[in-house]
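Subject: two folds for Thursday's group meeting

Dear M.,

Sorry for the delay on this. The cluster queue was jammed most of the week, so I only got both jobs back this morning. I'm pasting them in the order they finished. Each block is the input sequence followed by the predicted structure tokens. Could you check whether the formatting survives your parser before we put anything on slides? The first protein is the one we discussed after the seminar.
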Amino acid sequence: MNLQSTIDIDFKRFFQWWGRELAFLIPVGIRRFLSDKPARIILTANNLGFNVSSYLDEDQVEPVFSRFFEFSEREVFETLIQQFPGLEKAEYILALNAEQAIAKIVYLPEAALENLQQVVGFELDRYTPFTAEQVYYSVAPLAKTGYGQIQVLLVLSPQAIIDELYGQISLWNLQLSRIEYADLHAEFPQLRGQYNLLPDRYRTGTDKLAESVHWLLNFLIFVLMLAVLVYPVWQDKQAVDQLKNQIKTLEKETRVVDAQQMEIDALRDQTQWLINNKVHTPEIIKVLTELTHLFKDDSWLTNLQYSEMHAQIQGQSPMASALIGVLEASPYFSNVSFVSPLTQDKTTGLERFQISMDVIANPPLPDAAVANPDNATSAEPQPESDSGKPHE
């Protein structure tokens, strides 16, 4: 074989081998039930009678029974067969020995493969001492040699021998399916059933209806087994798809809930900011009231700036330096200091001041105010209006 040669695959033989290998995975009982191949009864003949061996299937090694029957023991044979229901529809195979048949390997051109039986018949006298009219013969291709030739197995038996044996078998009301050469099975096990020495005139047609019904039943069984395997998977897939749809619906609802939750969180944050701002920011009216209470009638403010818990005041007072202590003593203020030096107003003769201080949001109440909060509230000083001086 060279690299230029084409690879020719015998798909029929490949699938036959593949089917036999897969058959080992199936239990024997089921394999026998599904198989279209009946049990086998192999007959080996001599001058006195038949040696009979029976097998329930082609994979069985040990026979169900094996014994010799004389030609006159037909009724004994029929009685024995009735004891084995599985053999009632068995096929009968006549196995020839070396004295009854011969086999030979011949080489022919590949073109002869299309009509192998006829080609061998034309040249049978070249390969054997017989002519096609003297023997029954059968051929089976073995392999390609790679040189444009094929290797062919030729099996033949004299017509007189087969006719005589067939006549003896007919007396037993048995119908042969095949005639084989038993000595070939050990050397060429793959050829079992690939050739047949039984003449065409002795063969009976196969029951096509029975075969069709058998294959139809096998197909239905296969479909049912496939349904048993596939239906649960299909059901699970449907359940998974249904769950996926439910999840998608829940995801949409979840997104809506998340959006609402975000809005709620934003509103809560804004509300909390307002609450915190209210809690931590002092009331301006109270700050102004405190300043009015602390400043005497001879002092007043001209400007007040407040931002982020920090206040800055400007004004005039006859004793501006004393204001630092007064403001520090108040629970509303801390870190009180002058922003600029004191100057004297030439018009009023008072000292101009500019003071910076931190405002305390929630100043501690005096003990009296804690003991009587109503009195503390009512005791807050009110600005006096009879002095004629503005208070801010």
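Second protein, same layout:
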Amino acid sequence: MVTLRLVLLLLLLTIAQIDCKPPASTIKRQRQKGISGVRRSGASSHFQSHGGGVASGHHELNLTDALLDDDYNFDDDDLTEGDDVTDDGVTYEDDDDVTTDDDVRDDGLDAVVEGLEAAPPSTPTSPPTTQSTVAEEESTTEDETTTTEQSILETREDASPIPAEGLTDTFIIGEMMKGYDPRVRPASWDNTTQQQITGPVNVEVNMLIRSISKIDNVNMEYSVQLTFRESWYDPRLRYNYGVSTPDFVIMDQDTKVWMPDSFFQNEKQAHRHIIDKPNVLIRVYRYGMILYSVRLSLVLSCPMRLQNYPMDIQTCLIDVASYAYTDKDINYSWKEISPVQQKDGLNTSLPSFKLEAVKTDYCTSNTNTGTYSCLRTQLVLKRQFSYYLLQLYIPSSMLVIVSWVSFWLDRSAVPARVTLGVTTLLTMTTQASGINAKLPPVAYIKAIDVWIGACLTFIFGALLEFALVTFLAGRNEQKKKKTTDNGLLEANECGVWIPKNALERAERAEKQRLEAIAARPGPLTRWWRRNSAARDTSLQCDFFSRIMFPLLFIFFNILYWTHYQYPDLDKHANATAKP
């Protein structure tokens, strides 16, 4: 019985020492007496394994403190290093070494024993000892470096534990998609305050124009290849795992997340590029922003105004809007910095156009189903004039000049003048047909129509001038013949009329002519001859055409180029100068 009481007393004293942490002097005295914390801990553990519990020991501690008036005291000879302490229990060589002070303590120990025997067993838990605590403090630095990943906590409530291989994109995406419904659009999010607000989802758009090709004047369409990018916030996809959290993860295109239903309003044909892999990027940032990027080839309609063709400036549009969501659900906006980017050399790589400017605008539209937010890109394209200058204007001008050669030919060279006029006219007509075949049939007059019409007019005018000269020359010949054969009279050098054929002999076929009396011509005769030659209207017509046709063509060119080219350049410069 005394041995049992001694064991219980040692157990209670050990628990009291752990909870109350005795002063350093007491610990020093215990070490000097050869009683180590490990032995006391072993004795305590041995007692717990025999039905005792730490919880019941702590429960009875207050009763023991109330029964004991003084702190526990041991004599130097009570316990020595020679005492046997084994795993099977605590054995002391002399039971009389430890005695109680008075009967009150014996009664208190009896009450403690009865309470311990009546207490239900509990799960044994080894309390930390003084040496184990010191060891933990010494290994704190090593624990921090080896358990960094284990100490990172996720912000999601339904988060799974971080796998042993660490944070991976697959793990993060799997955690984000728990309970995610891609059919429901995200709530509006204020990135500045990091709070949810009321209103539509703000979708920020920017694009990179890679190439522009096949600008078709007949069908009024053009082909463009671009990289289309959208970004918006989805608070449901936020993630945070501490310092080791990646800035973003890349999702596969098969991953179902909510996306705006954007479409191109003036699109005729379109396709995505899938060689070598689908050219699609879905990037989710840790703070909930989603970046969607896709490479597209589009055939877009471009209504053209061809009044100034081929010196025209066309504005082709790229309109982006939502098909189902109104402006109460989605609000499109351009990216503040570089909303539309261009590939290097794009403005000079077009075969027949030059990209003068790229502008951005808004095109919100009202329909029967609601108001829809819309973004517009304006591509200002100026037609390259050098091609048409070499292929149309210079050749047609040369044809007009060649038609003027007939003015310098003799009026009697009828075959040459006719061939020259007809050939130039047919050549100009063929050239005009080739130009009009590249243009759509429109109801208004184009600049090229004015030029071709003027050239045809000048060439046809030269042909008509030859016909007029031939007519006037024939009429003059008839007048001269009528004058010489009138009344068988001829004026002599003196201006006196004498009979030319006074008699006709029936037996002879020829007429008898009288020789003109030789005389020196007078001043009146010389004036008459000069005026008769000057009054040859056919020669006057050729002389007049040699001067007037070039002057009229030069005057037409001044009016033509001033009206069609320079006002358009000034107007375009003023339009681009506006903010």
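Two things I noticed about the second structure. The mean pLDDT is 72. Residues 447-484 form the longest helix (38 residues).

Cheers,
T.
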